[in-house]
Design brief:
By secondary structure, the protein is α/β, with parallel strands linked by helices. The chain has eleven helices and 22 strands. It has a nine-stranded mixed β-sheet, sandwiched between helices. A six-stranded antiparallel β-sheet has the order 8-7-10-5-6-9. α1 crosses α11 and α6 crosses α11. The longest helix is centred in the first third of the chain and has 20 residues. It is globular and about 75 Å long. 44% of the residues are buried.
Amino acid sequence: MERANAWKTYDEKTKTAVFDFAEDYRQFISKAKTERECVEESVKLAKAAGYEDLNEVIKAGKTLKAGDKVYAVNMKKAIVLFNIGEEPIENGMNILGAHIDSPRLDIKQNPLYEDTDLVLLDTHYYGGVKKYQWVATPLALHGVVALKDGSVVDVTFGEDPTDPVLGVSDLLIHLAAEQMEKKGSKVVEGEALDVLVGSMPAEGKDDEKELVKKNILAILKEKYGIEEEDFLSAELTMVPAGPARDYGFDKSMIMGYGHDDKSCSYPSLIALLNSKKLKKTGVCILVDKEEIGSVGATGMQSKFFENMVAELMDRCGDYSDLKLRRALANSFMLSSDVSAAFDPNYASVFDKKNSAFFGRGVVFNKYTGARGKSGSNDASAEYVAKVRKICDDNNVNFQTAELGKVDAGGGGTIAYILANLDMNVIDSGIAVLNMHAPHEIISKADLWEALKCYEAFLKDA
């Protein structure tokens, strides 16, 4: 059952809309490279669309009703948004869920050191990465430093065109004979991913040690007002420097950092913000920590989502523990995460009959997991049929896929966590090339079809 290429279905007006939406997305991911930045940008968009802060609503003792729109932020790293529908929340919600964290290099708590007149930052990689992909490429520093006086300093270094960039050095090919014999997982070791940040010494006595480090600390003090000890309470990360770019002679694709999973989270957010009156309450939840198991207070396994639904029902004057449980069990969800795009260069790891292809629309994965579907949410046949009908009724181009050949590997999403609440969940998203590399690639057509799918789901599920 080969699916049609979505580009063939577009007239010139639609193509213009596809490219315009892709440009909005390109601008978004160029600014929002960390989960904190994603939440910050999402709040701006939500406020512009008339959403209120749910915590402010609670403090003011206000009640909520159908048509009201609210959002809640969790520790600046996750966000949930609600467009309250005409039906009681107890009847269920239509939920779009995605994650906003991406693989990267995190700066350790005691990171700064000098070695042979070079100063480096020690890192710990985050998420599943091919470590060798992160060397010899321009990197930027993003994050925050929390000071003992309670203030928080925002740090972004390497993104402005006038900024220097940072990076991890690689071993020259001339001396790499031994290195080239190693397995890919060992070519670059995790402890070798230290970021070079300076080489010029400060003024000092001839016998004074670590003058380059002294100079770097002086720069950090002048620019950000931070001391070396402040790294202890910092969340700093290295990400690829520079904006996302159009890709291909025809500009039909986008190359950028963090398509996994911002290519799903952004259209999920915009779909909800675009929604008008809904029968069922529409929800968009964007969470942290998926790349390391959805753990912690800002991951999907936390109680944040359930707590916020309870608060919402309370403000609507219709809360009880039983009604909350019913609301969750009666809900439908699209767990929006990316899928592996078929790559002709590596065809051997794909089952072509069950692969996702660029330009053929949003992807549904009935199940993910690895080897025997381990760790997977496996959507019911009835729910898959319901989603198919929504797409067909709304002229959404879609395809189905698995994550490569059986036993070739595998992966997971947040789907199973929501399914644990007894709701119907299926994985949906966009096909990605170079997944988890510093620079990933998506099709603009697929991005557009995801938006259409998510809008239709909120309206008709």
